[in-house]
Design goal:
The chain has 2 domains: 49 residues, Helicase, Ruva Protein, domain 3, CATH 1.10.8.420; 147 residues, Dna Topoisomerase Vi A Subunit, Chain: A, domain 2 (3-Layer(aba) Sandwich). It is 43% helix and 13% strand. Helix 1 crosses helix 2. Strand 5, helix 7 and strand 6 form a beta-alpha-beta unit. The chain is elongated, with a radius of gyration of 20 Å. The strands form 2 sheets. A 5-stranded mixed sheet has the order 4-3-5-6-7.
Length: 205
Protein backbone atom coordinates (compact mmCIF):
# COMPACT_ATOMS: atom_id res chain seq x y z
CA UNK A 1 0.00 0.00 0.00
CA UNK A 2 1.60 3.24 -1.19
CA UNK A 3 1.10 6.44 0.82
CA UNK A 4 1.53 10.02 -0.31
CA UNK A 5 2.30 11.07 3.27
CA UNK A 6 4.57 9.52 5.89
CA UNK A 7 2.32 10.99 8.60
CA UNK A 8 -0.70 9.24 7.07
CA UNK A 9 1.26 6.00 6.76
CA UNK A 10 2.28 6.15 10.42
CA UNK A 11 -1.30 6.81 11.57
CA UNK A 12 -2.62 3.92 9.46
CA UNK A 13 0.07 1.59 10.79
CA UNK A 14 -0.75 2.42 14.42
CA UNK A 15 -4.50 2.06 13.81
CA UNK A 16 -3.94 -1.33 12.13
CA UNK A 17 -2.34 -2.66 15.35
CA UNK A 18 -5.81 -2.77 16.94
CA UNK A 19 -7.44 -6.24 16.98
CA UNK A 20 -9.65 -6.90 13.97
CA UNK A 21 -8.41 -3.82 12.11
CA UNK A 22 -6.59 -4.49 8.85
CA UNK A 23 -4.66 -1.96 6.75
CA UNK A 24 -7.65 -1.06 4.55
CA UNK A 25 -10.00 -0.57 7.50
CA UNK A 26 -7.31 1.44 9.28
CA UNK A 27 -6.94 3.69 6.23
CA UNK A 28 -10.72 4.24 6.08
CA UNK A 29 -10.81 5.18 9.77
CA UNK A 30 -7.85 7.55 9.52
CA UNK A 31 -9.31 9.27 6.45
CA UNK A 32 -12.61 9.61 8.30
CA UNK A 33 -10.81 11.36 11.17
CA UNK A 34 -9.12 13.69 8.70
CA UNK A 35 -12.51 14.73 7.33
CA UNK A 36 -13.85 15.55 10.80
CA UNK A 37 -13.29 18.88 12.60
CA UNK A 38 -9.83 18.93 14.17
CA UNK A 39 -11.37 19.28 17.65
CA UNK A 40 -13.10 15.90 17.35
CA UNK A 41 -9.84 14.12 16.62
CA UNK A 42 -8.13 15.98 19.45
CA UNK A 43 -10.92 14.96 21.85
CA UNK A 44 -10.38 11.32 20.83
CA UNK A 45 -6.62 11.58 21.29
CA UNK A 46 -7.08 13.27 24.67
CA UNK A 47 -9.55 10.61 25.87
CA UNK A 48 -7.16 7.81 24.88
CA UNK A 49 -4.24 9.53 26.58
CA UNK A 50 -6.23 10.12 29.79
CA UNK A 51 -7.41 6.51 29.81
CA UNK A 52 -3.90 5.16 29.34
CA UNK A 53 -2.31 7.42 31.95
CA UNK A 54 -4.97 7.58 34.66
CA UNK A 55 -6.92 4.31 34.56
CA UNK A 56 -6.56 2.01 37.57
CA UNK A 57 -7.28 -1.59 38.48
CA UNK A 58 -9.44 -2.25 41.53
CA UNK A 59 -7.22 -3.36 44.42
CA UNK A 60 -9.83 -5.92 45.46
CA UNK A 61 -11.21 -7.51 42.28
CA UNK A 62 -8.79 -6.23 39.56
CA UNK A 63 -11.65 -4.71 37.56
CA UNK A 64 -10.81 -1.62 35.50
CA UNK A 65 -11.68 1.45 37.55
CA UNK A 66 -11.19 5.19 37.95
CA UNK A 67 -10.49 4.75 41.67
CA UNK A 68 -8.52 2.39 43.92
CA UNK A 69 -11.73 0.48 44.70
CA UNK A 70 -14.21 -0.01 41.86
CA UNK A 71 -17.87 1.03 42.19
CA UNK A 72 -19.04 -2.58 42.49
CA UNK A 73 -16.68 -3.48 45.35
CA UNK A 74 -17.45 -0.17 47.08
CA UNK A 75 -21.22 -0.72 46.89
CA UNK A 76 -22.50 -1.73 50.37
CA UNK A 77 -25.55 -3.37 48.80
CA UNK A 78 -23.44 -6.03 47.06
CA UNK A 79 -23.05 -9.44 48.73
CA UNK A 80 -19.42 -9.92 49.71
CA UNK A 81 -19.86 -13.63 50.43
CA UNK A 82 -20.40 -14.56 46.76
CA UNK A 83 -17.67 -13.98 44.18
CA UNK A 84 -18.08 -14.50 40.45
CA UNK A 85 -14.80 -15.36 38.70
CA UNK A 86 -14.52 -13.89 35.20
CA UNK A 87 -11.86 -13.41 32.55
CA UNK A 88 -12.00 -9.65 32.00
CA UNK A 89 -14.08 -6.47 32.23
CA UNK A 90 -16.19 -7.44 29.20
CA UNK A 91 -17.57 -10.37 31.19
CA UNK A 92 -18.29 -8.14 34.20
CA UNK A 93 -20.24 -5.80 31.91
CA UNK A 94 -22.13 -8.69 30.31
CA UNK A 95 -23.21 -10.14 33.67
CA UNK A 96 -24.06 -6.71 35.11
CA UNK A 97 -26.35 -6.10 32.13
CA UNK A 98 -28.46 -9.09 33.21
CA UNK A 99 -29.20 -7.55 36.65
CA UNK A 100 -29.19 -11.15 37.95
CA UNK A 101 -26.08 -11.07 40.12
CA UNK A 102 -25.67 -9.08 43.34
CA UNK A 103 -22.34 -10.41 44.56
CA UNK A 104 -18.79 -9.28 43.79
CA UNK A 105 -16.39 -10.22 41.00
CA UNK A 106 -12.82 -11.35 40.63
CA UNK A 107 -11.23 -10.53 37.28
CA UNK A 108 -8.47 -12.98 36.35
CA UNK A 109 -7.14 -10.98 33.42
CA UNK A 110 -7.21 -13.94 31.05
CA UNK A 111 -7.29 -17.74 30.97
CA UNK A 112 -4.57 -20.37 31.32
CA UNK A 113 -3.38 -21.10 27.79
CA UNK A 114 0.00 -22.84 27.41
CA UNK A 115 -0.25 -22.44 23.62
CA UNK A 116 -0.26 -18.66 24.10
CA UNK A 117 2.35 -18.73 26.84
CA UNK A 118 -0.17 -17.82 29.56
CA UNK A 119 0.32 -19.70 32.83
CA UNK A 120 -1.30 -19.45 36.29
CA UNK A 121 1.32 -16.94 37.46
CA UNK A 122 0.30 -14.57 34.66
CA UNK A 123 -3.24 -14.29 36.02
CA UNK A 124 -4.82 -12.86 39.19
CA UNK A 125 -5.24 -16.30 40.75
CA UNK A 126 -3.09 -15.94 43.88
CA UNK A 127 -5.15 -13.00 45.17
CA UNK A 128 -8.34 -15.02 44.60
CA UNK A 129 -6.99 -18.02 46.51
CA UNK A 130 -5.89 -15.75 49.36
CA UNK A 131 -9.32 -14.12 49.42
CA UNK A 132 -11.01 -17.52 49.74
CA UNK A 133 -8.59 -18.72 52.45
CA UNK A 134 -9.41 -15.65 54.57
CA UNK A 135 -12.78 -17.33 55.18
CA UNK A 136 -15.19 -14.53 54.27
CA UNK A 137 -16.26 -16.01 50.91
CA UNK A 138 -19.09 -18.56 51.03
CA UNK A 139 -19.53 -19.27 47.31
CA UNK A 140 -17.31 -19.02 44.26
CA UNK A 141 -19.03 -18.97 40.85
CA UNK A 142 -16.87 -19.94 37.89
CA UNK A 143 -18.09 -17.84 34.95
CA UNK A 144 -15.34 -18.36 32.40
CA UNK A 145 -16.15 -19.18 28.79
CA UNK A 146 -16.95 -22.80 27.98
CA UNK A 147 -13.68 -23.42 26.17
CA UNK A 148 -10.76 -25.75 26.86
CA UNK A 149 -8.78 -22.81 28.28
CA UNK A 150 -11.72 -21.75 30.45
CA UNK A 151 -12.25 -25.26 31.80
CA UNK A 152 -8.51 -25.65 32.47
CA UNK A 153 -8.48 -22.40 34.44
CA UNK A 154 -11.57 -23.39 36.42
CA UNK A 155 -10.03 -26.74 37.32
CA UNK A 156 -6.70 -25.19 38.34
CA UNK A 157 -8.45 -22.79 40.75
CA UNK A 158 -10.65 -25.63 42.01
CA UNK A 159 -7.56 -27.69 42.92
CA UNK A 160 -6.08 -24.72 44.82
CA UNK A 161 -9.09 -24.26 47.08
CA UNK A 162 -10.83 -27.64 47.13
CA UNK A 163 -9.99 -28.14 50.83
CA UNK A 164 -11.59 -24.82 51.81
CA UNK A 165 -15.08 -24.71 53.32
CA UNK A 166 -16.70 -23.04 50.33
CA UNK A 167 -19.40 -23.78 47.76
CA UNK A 168 -18.05 -23.84 44.21
CA UNK A 169 -20.48 -23.57 41.32
CA UNK A 170 -20.36 -22.88 37.62
CA UNK A 171 -22.81 -21.12 35.34
CA UNK A 172 -25.35 -23.46 33.74
CA UNK A 173 -24.52 -24.73 30.27
CA UNK A 174 -27.29 -22.81 28.59
CA UNK A 175 -24.31 -21.14 26.98
CA UNK A 176 -23.01 -23.20 24.08
CA UNK A 177 -19.65 -24.89 24.58
CA UNK A 178 -16.96 -22.77 22.92
CA UNK A 179 -18.89 -19.51 23.22
CA UNK A 180 -17.41 -16.39 24.79
CA UNK A 181 -19.47 -14.85 27.60
CA UNK A 182 -19.52 -11.34 26.13
CA UNK A 183 -21.39 -12.53 23.00
CA UNK A 184 -24.13 -14.35 24.92
CA UNK A 185 -27.55 -12.69 25.06
CA UNK A 186 -28.56 -11.21 28.41
CA UNK A 187 -31.52 -13.53 29.03
CA UNK A 188 -29.47 -16.71 28.50
CA UNK A 189 -26.57 -15.37 30.55
CA UNK A 190 -28.88 -14.25 33.37
CA UNK A 191 -30.53 -17.67 33.54
CA UNK A 192 -27.12 -19.35 33.53
CA UNK A 193 -26.11 -17.32 36.59
CA UNK A 194 -29.36 -18.01 38.45
CA UNK A 195 -29.38 -21.73 37.55
CA UNK A 196 -25.71 -22.35 38.33
CA UNK A 197 -24.68 -25.89 39.23
CA UNK A 198 -22.09 -27.33 41.63
CA UNK A 199 -18.64 -27.24 40.05
CA UNK A 200 -17.96 -30.88 40.88
CA UNK A 201 -21.02 -31.86 38.84
CA UNK A 202 -19.64 -30.01 35.81
CA UNK A 203 -16.49 -32.15 35.92
CA UNK A 204 -18.58 -35.25 35.20
CA UNK A 205 -20.40 -33.78 32.20
Amino acid sequence: MEFSSKLLEKAVYEMSQLPGIGKRTALRLVLHLLRQPKEQTLHLASALQLMRNDIKFCKSCHNISDTELCEICANPRRTEEIICVVEDIRDVMAIENTSSFKGLYHVLGGKISPMDGVGPNDLNITTLVNKVKEGHVKELIFALSSTMEGDTTNFYIFKQIQDCDIVMSTIARGISVGNELEYTDEVTLGRSILNRIPFEASLKS
